[in-house]
Amino acid sequence: MDFQEYQKKCLNTWIGGEKFIRSFLGVSGEAGELLECINKHLRGDFDREELKKRCTRELGDVLYYTAVTAHELGIDFNQIAEENLAKLAKRMAEGKIRGDGDNR
Ligand SMILES: [Mg+2]
């Protein structure tokens, strides 16, 4: 599926107001739910297969809110993916893929 098509479908399912701030909160909240998956897996609550199922759902939720946030900021969703890949390729070419910080 194309990122822009996905983004449009996400926007069609949004309910309620405050889309700008709630989209940001949603990214953070769903990222927390993703972390809960690995926490519960490590605690022994479920096996690797169940971890995969749960993470698939939570990653989808993160993706959903990311798509809405991008829309609210007027950022083309395809552009996010393309710029991210370009950034990583540049770091790889320069031998700077390790480390931290955006300005490597
Ligand atoms: Mg969720």
Question: Secondary-structure blueprint of this entry?
Answer:
Layout: H1 3-12, H2 19-43, H3 48-72, H4 77-93
The chain binds magnesium ion (MG).
Give your account of this protein's structure.
The protein is mainly alpha-helical and 104 residues long. It has a domain of 70 residues. Helix content is 74%, strand content 0%. It has four helices and no strands. α1 crosses α3 and α2 packs antiparallel against α3. It is globular, with a radius of gyration of 16 Å. The site of magnesium ion has 4 residues, from α2 and α3.
What's this entry about, in short?
The protein has 104 residues and is mostly helical. The protein has a domain at 7-76. 74% of the residues lie in helices and 0% in strands.
Q: Name the helix and strand elements from N-terminus to C-terminus, one letter apiece.
A: HHHH
Ligands: magnesium ion
Helix content percent band: over 70%
Structural class: mainly alpha
Low-confidence stretches: none
Shape: globular
Mean pLDDT: 95
**Separation, N- and C-terminal Cα atoms:** 31 Å
**Number of discrete helical segments:** 4
What is the tally of beta strands? 0
Question: Largest beta sheet, briefly?
Answer: none
Radius of gyration: 16 Å
Strand percentage: under 5%
